[in-house]
Write a structure and sequence with these properties.
With 292 residues, the chain is an all-alpha fold. The protein is built from 16 helices and two strands. It has a two-stranded antiparallel sheet. Helix 3 runs parallel beside helix 10 and helix 4 packs antiparallel against helix 10. The protein starts with a helix and ends with a helix. Bound molecules: geranylgeranyl diphosphate.
Length: 292
């Protein structure tokens, strides 16, 4: 299997679907669609939809998962818009471009985030061929991951930790929610729609929990050692904002060791599926060595 070729194919499919959902907007709502598209169609790595699709394929599914895969990416895009707002992290740059509120103003950025979140659920429901019980279960996973027991819950821990030294348990809990929840939902929804059993879905949960933590550790390392041009945002922001990260808590060398350990654990879980899981194994390694 040529990993980069397969990866590119999955990214292209995601781009096609995402654009399709935003084609017909030459009407009086033009302004909000422009702001939504600015953040949704602007060079994200598409990790969540690619994970959703590949986990679906692992169990024999395919393109039928794309509405849910895109819904996850839309929720991710909304979280980035809101996270950059002046009342949150107040960031001016993301993916090498001015943030949404810098271009469209705070009020429109707020609405663009709200619009993406709401539209995500509409988009998720566009595949009427899925069995109703599968759709309902996938929606439960999606909404729980986005909400107060998931990503929002993690953001609240983050806000309450500002300017404080937090311990390793709080740091882990925060990231399992803030970053991990959507990544875990991607893997589980993909598996569910692909036809996985309950037992398989539990395995995918374990796999994606390790992967989500590894993803965040890498993010913290990149904030120290990354290249600003490749990242499209300034490095060192965690230090400036006095944030506790895997690097500040454990040191850079230990953080790198943890990144490798969590990635290996993820790969170990998925290895049970043999060659069928080759893409996911390579994908885990790609996340470990990524430079943006
Ligand atoms: C709803 C305000 C609000 C926040 C929710 C997820 C989140 C909390 C905020 C987003 C900011 C952030 C730094 C989250 C941590 C997860 C993370 C590393 C996001 C970046 O994801 P990538 O690297 O982004 O997949 P791209 O740009 O590739 O799409």
């Amino acid at each position: 299997m040529d990993f980069l070729f397969e990866f590119e194919k999955k990214i292209n499919l995601t781009e096609q679907y995402l654009s399709k959902y935003f084609m017909e907007n030459d009407n009086h709502q033009k302004a909000i669609y422009e702001a939504m598209k600015y953040s949704l169609l602007s060079g994200g790595k598409r990790i969540r939809p690619v994970l959703t699709l590949s986990c679906c394929e692992l169990f024999g599914g395919g393109e039928e998962v794309m509405p849910f895969a895109c819904a996850l990416e839309m929720i991710h895009a909304y979280s980035l818009i809101h996270d950059d707002l002046p009342c949150m992290d107040n960031d001016d740059l993301r993916r090498g471009k001015p943030t949404n509120h810098v271009v469209y103003g705070e009020a429109m950025a707020l609405l663009a985030g709200d619009g993406l979140l709401t539209r995500a659920f509409e988009v998720a429901l566009t595949n009427s061929e899925l069995l109703p019980n599968i759709t309902v279960d996938a929606l439960k996973l999606l909404s729980a991951a986005a909400g107060t027991e998931g990503m929002i819950g993690g953001q609240v821990i983050d806000m309450e930790s500002e300017e404080k030294d937090i311990d390793s348990v709080t740091l882990m809990t925060m990231h399992l929610h803030k970053t991990g929840a959507l990544i875990m939902a991607a893997a589980k929804i993909g598996a569910l729609i692909g036809g996985a059993t309950k037992e398989d879905i539990l395995k995918m949960e374990s796999f994606s929990r390790y992967l989500g933590i590894a993803f965040q550790i890498k993010d913290d390392i990149l904030d120290v050692e990354g290249n600003e041009e490749l990242l499209g945002k300034p490095v060192g922001s965690d230090k400036i904002n006095h944030k506790t990260t895997f690097v500040t808590l454990y040191g850079i060398e230990q953080a790198k060791k943890m990144l490798e350990d969590y990635t290996l654990k993820a790969i170990e879980v998925i290895s049970e599926y043999g060659e069928k899981a080759d893409f996911l194994k390579e994908f885990s390694n790609y996340l470990l060595s990524r430079d943006r």
